[in-house]
């Protein structure tokens, strides 16, 4: 029997583990991406340059190649396309309308609000005409963001009306649909919940607490999976997660959600029908939960039965983001030594020699991070600190290396 053909949307570094795993499982792989030079192309059986946000062009490619399944596992921009193609070809998928619920924050707010969940006060704007009135009704501090982007791109947090017009223009420039969301800030502890839904039943694979950078409150400096939570806290979170997934219509597949713990309320902030970035999907969840969610996603896309059985006592992991001085990077040292520290799963650099270190405008502007795995929160934080202490950077114009924070 000819091996099944899995269509992977996106050919970047975050799709490389998915392509490798699918090949290791004995499947053929087709990769499509809008760019001509992508690392996953070299691993795939076939590749084509097609914009993964273009539903019709992707459908034509998938039809011509006679795919057996399609997946978009770590980027929001192709989630709706994968669902569209699967629906049109009668393949396993989450459904196009459901995908739009997870990739359009305006739809997300309306549906969770209608379901009776605690949501921020919000207004959706398609022009700047009602901006001042919307801000006055929502009240400061507030968030202005595009409805359909990711990684914090185009997001501004404002404590007063100064900069409101500029924040709207930034969000509008990052919004593919042209819609902008103005919503109240929800104060409290931000958490991430990762999991998998099978036949309408959600299983939690990990719960992490986020710590923001002091000078950039919308960008995380730490994502900490502490291990087991008190039962009452876990059940409160689980109930809100299930209600949110039900409101958005996810019956099967992976999810990566962000909530704010605000006193008695657990407020949905954002939720994606894909795996979490910064190696959560590929490195953290298998350790924390004992479940290879990537393998489950591949199996589900190809019509295989999926079982999700997380460990009864989750393990710990952390993703620690580091900073560098402003300016141009001349050289980074100590990466191999940091990666060799026991318990370090990965050291990742977003910036290289020649790149400019600027303000933390969004998540992708962080210079890099260390992923560490262990049994307790104290252990994984200590491992991360040891690894980061070994990293050094030399900025252009400087004669010596300096420590990375």
TrEMBL record:
Documented EC number(s): 6.3.2.4
Keyword Nucleotide-binding appears in the UniProt entry: yes
Coiled-coil residue spans: none
Keywords: ATP-binding, Ligase, Nucleotide-binding
PROSITE patterns registered for this protein in UniProt: ATP_GRASP
InterPro entries noted in UniProt: ATP-dep_AA_Ligase (IPR052032), ATP-grasp (IPR011761), ATP_grasp_subdomain_1 (IPR013815), LAL_C2 (IPR040570), PreATP-grasp_dom_sf (IPR016185)
GO MF annotations in UniProt: ATP binding; D-alanine-D-alanine ligase activity; metal ion binding
Every ATP-grasp domain range: 109-302
The protein, known as: D-alanine--D-alanine ligase
């Amino acid at each position: 029997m000819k091996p099944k053909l899995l269509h992977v949307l996106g050919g970047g570094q975050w799709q490389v583990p998915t392509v490798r795993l699918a090949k290791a499982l004995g499947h053929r792989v087709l990769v499509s991406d809008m760019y001509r030079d992508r690392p996953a192309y070299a691993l795939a059986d076939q590749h084509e340059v097609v914009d993964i946000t273009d539903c019709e062009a992707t459908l034509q490619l998938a039809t011509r190649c006679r795919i057996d399944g399609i997946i978009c596992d770590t980027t929001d921009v192709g989630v709706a396309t994968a669902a569209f193609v699967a629906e049109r070809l009668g393949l396993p998928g989450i459904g196009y309308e459901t995908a739009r619920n997870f990739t359009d924050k305006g739809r997300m707010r309306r549906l969770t609000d209608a379901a009776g969940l605690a949501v921020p006060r919000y207004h959706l704007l398609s022009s700047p005409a009602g901006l001042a009135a919307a801000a006055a009704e929502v009240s400061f501090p507030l968030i202005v963001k595009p409805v359909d982007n990711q990684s914090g791109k185009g997001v501004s947090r404002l404590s007063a009306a100064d900069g409101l017009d500029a924040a709207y223009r930034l969000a509008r420039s990052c919004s593919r649909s042209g819609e902008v969301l103005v919503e109240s800030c929800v104060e409290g502890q931000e958490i991430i919940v990762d999991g998998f839904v099978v036949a309408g039943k959600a299983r939690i694979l990990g719960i992490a607490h986020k710590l923001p950078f002091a000078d950039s409150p919308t960008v995380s400096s730490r994502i900490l999976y502490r291990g087991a939570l008190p039962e009452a806290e876990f059940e409160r979170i689980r109930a809100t997660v299930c209600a949110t997934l039900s409101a958005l219509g996810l019956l099967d597949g992976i999810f990566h959600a962000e909530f704010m713990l605000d006193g008695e309320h657990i407020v949905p902030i954002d939720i994606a029908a894909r795996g979490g970035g910064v190696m959560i999907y590929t490195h953290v969840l298998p350790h924390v939960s004992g479940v290879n969610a990537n393998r489950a996603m591949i199996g589900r896309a190809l019509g295989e039965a999926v079982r999700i059985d997380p460990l009864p006592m989750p393990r710990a992991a952390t993703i620690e983001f580091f900073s560098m001085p402003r300016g141009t990077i001349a050289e980074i040292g100590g990466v191999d030594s940091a990666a060799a520290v026991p318990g370090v799963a990965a050291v990742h650099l977003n910036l290289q020699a020649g790149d400019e270190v600027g303000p933390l405008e969004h998540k992708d502007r962080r210079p890099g991070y260390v992923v560490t795995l262990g049994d307790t929160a104290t252990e994984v934080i200590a491992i991360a600190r040891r690894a980061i202490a070994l990293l050094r950077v030399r900025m252009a114009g400087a004669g010596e290396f300096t420590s990375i924070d």
